[in-house]
Amino acid sequence: YKTLRLILGDQLNASHSWFKQQDEQTLYLIAELHQETCYTVHHRQKIAAFFAAMQQFAFALQTAGHQVAHLTLDDTKPFKELPALLDHLIESYSIQRFEYQLPDEYRLREQLANFSESLPLNSAAYSTEHFYLPDEEIGKYFQASKSHRLENFYRKMRLRFDVLMDKEVPLGGKWNYDANNRNKLKTDDLANVPAPLLFSNDVTSILERIDKHKISTIGHSYTQLLWPVNRKQATQLLSFFCEQCLPRFGQFQDSMTGKLSLLGKDNGWSLYHSRISFALNAKIISPQYVVKTAIEAFERSEGRIDISQIEGFVRQIIGWREFIRGVYWANMPDYASLNALEAKRQLPSWFWTGDTKMNCLQHAIKQSLDYAYAHHIQRLMVTGNFCLLAGVDPTFVDDWYLGIYIDAIEWVEMPNTRGMSQFADGGIVGSKAYAASGNYINKMSDYCSDCLYKVNKTTEDQACPLNSLYWHFMDKHQHQMGNNPRTKMVFSSWLKKSEQQRIEVLNKAKHCLDDIENL
Ligand code: FAD
Ligand code: SF4
After folding, report:
1. pLDDT single digits (tens) 411-422
2. Which InterPro entries does UniProt cross-reference here (predicted)?
3. For 491, which of 228, 297, 425, 481 could close a Cys bridge (C-beta 3.0–4.6 Å)?
């Protein structure tokens, strides 16, 4: 072979221009790497999904006539790090040129840039040809340390890529239909929640490899993996979403329920969400294809899918997903150590078991351990909110999210966790800290009615811990909260309480924090 081309586990884009021509002289490398299994403790399903998808991709490339080396953990065991493996292959095959696609993670981009620089042969880095916004244009939209707002960016993207536009005007007359999209699932709505489309990909041998190589993992795994691992399954999942979930996607996007699992049903975790994030982040499917397919379903639906649902979905993909990526690249590597609220606490150990009496947290965590998945509001307003209120060090929070979710890759995990949910970036991603008391959880879910704690109590014995922790957070960060136009009003209601009341609330919060392991 003359050329070695590296394909990382999240670069499974079959439409990449690399694959337009077959070339006997080019060897594609797809390898299960030890370094990738242990930079954090991953969920078992996450490792299984990446390895299964890589295996399928290698097979598809071979079938299409390309030369592929698909290496398992057994093959790569002697090489602790990727450069050592690459050096070995370059030497063994007398390779003359090394090529790779630009990694989306800072850690890997640095590693491969350094490796290429040290090589005595020619090398080149290519775009992954996946995102709407090309790499070289990120700097036009995002600057380091600067606060950016999703809405401005999102409108620019809609205009630029002509998505849901009627010439210069947004389709339906409004850019944003979020206000229509904040419903709670009522008891009558529960019967309509569709059962999720799940796959059964046999990952027995991958799980055996994980154990054989003593890779530390979290969460449960099943020999039949339910996540999509190839393009066919990803498009099936997307069609299922467009047919069954998109008509109510926006409407119930923020709602959460524990009732369905009490009824023994297996659809409370998925609700109306697409669960397409793994296939997207592994680049098995492209954001353009997802958006185009959803818009076609909207156009065909003769009103069954209304504009607020499709707009809500499109905003997640061409808005949030691209926005988060821009923030990441404009601010790395400094972003990884931001801690604006100086949070220092450890995560309580029940984050790894779900054994807490707080019903909302118990649900979100157990579900994450079961499926490697929680939807956005569970991540932001349940687990994320708890960490924010309790003052958990954002590095521990990042690490937990990076490990547990099927779709967690640093470029998308970190600005969401450290920025949006922990406000550790001081407002680069969001204009306020997403802090909430039990009242918010009660408004958006049915968790509270089955909880040991009382959501309408703050200082009493059985009071919901989130209530006192919320005021404790406001009080502790009064400088930020009192001066921020979006939290100023709430903060002033804290000041309106009598001194005695405030002392009682703060004492209760202190008690909760001292007893955090037993909440
Ligand atoms: P849907 O609700 O069906 O949304 C459709 C798609 O929109 C998603 O697949 C995703 O690609 C995109 N999207 C929606 N919101 C966001 C967002 N805030 N940022 C980026 N893309 C978004 N997403 C990840 O892909 N990886 C992560 O590691 C990750 N970590 C998160 C951590 C926290 C604390 C929070 C609050 C959010 C995180 N998100 C992450 C964003 C979001 O929660 C997930 O993308 C979403 O839950 C995936 O499920 P879905 O495919 O069913 O999404
Ligand atoms: Fe969560 Fe509090 Fe409601 Fe319990 S009462 S589910 S802890 S918000």
Report:
1. 999 999 999 999
2. Crypto/Photolyase_FAD-like_sf (IPR036134), PhrB-like (IPR007357), Rossmann-like_a/b/a_fold (IPR014729), UV-DNA_repair_photolyase (IPR052551)
3. 481
What gap in Å lies between CA 440 and CA 438, rounded to an integer?
A: 5
Separation between Cα atoms, residue 61 and residue 377, nearest integer Å? 38
Mean pLDDT across the chain, nearest whole number?
96
Same fold, 142-204+227-331 and 349-518: no
CATH fold for the domain made of 349-518: DNA Cyclobutane Dipyrimidine Photolyase, subunit A; domain 3 (1.10.579)
309 CA distance to ligand 2 centroid (A)? 29
Name which residue sits closest to atom 5 of ligand 2, judged by CA. Answer: 455
Q: Which ligand is nearest to the CA of 357?
A: 2
Question: Are the beta carbons of 41 and 217 closer than 8 angstroms?
Answer: yes
Integer Cα distance of 45 and 43 in angstroms = 5
Largest CA distance in the chain: 79
Mean pLDDT value across residues 5-9: 98
Q: Extract the tokens encoding 62.
A: 């071979």
Whether residue 181 has pLDDT greater than 80: no
Task: Find out whether the beta carbon of 376 lies less than 6 Å from any atom of ligand 1.
Answer: yes
Q: What separation in Å is there between the alpha carbon of 264 and the centre of ligand 2?
A: 21
Query: Tell me: the pLDDT tens digits for 323-372?
Result: 999 999 999 999 999 999 999 999 999 999 999 999 999 999 999 999 99
pLDDT of residue 84: 97
Name the residue ranges covered by the structural domains of the chain. Answer: 3-126, 142-204+227-331, 349-518
What is the three-class DSSP state of 156? helix
Residue 360 Cβ contacting ligand 2 at under 6 Å: yes
Give the right CATH number for 3-126 from 3.30.70.2860, 3.40.250.10, 3.40.50.620, 3.40.570.10.
3.40.50.620
Q: For residue 404, is pLDDT > 80?
A: yes
Is residue 480 pLDDT above 90, yes or no?
no
Q: Is the ipTM of this complex over 0.90?
A: yes
How is domain 142-204+227-331 classified at the architecture level of CATH?
Answer: Alpha Horseshoe (1.25)
Quickly tell me which residue has 């949070």 as its tokens: 343
Buried b (16+ CB within 10 A) or exposed e, 450-478: ebebebeebbeeebbbbbbbbbbbbbbbe
Q: Is 359 in the pocket of ligand 2 (CB under 6 A)?
A: yes
Q: Which atom of ligand 1 is nearest to the CA of 241?
A: 3
- 317: Cβ below 6 Å to ligand 1? yes
Question: What band does 229 get if pLDDT is binned at 50, 70 and 90?
Answer: very high
Mean pLDDT of 417-440: 95
For the chain, percent of residues with pLDDT exceeding 90: 92
Best residue among 272, 280, 412, 423 to mutate for probing ligand 1's pocket (most ligand atoms within 8 Å of CB) is 412
* φ/ψ bin of 328: left (φ > 0), alpha (ψ from -120 to 50), beta (otherwise): alpha
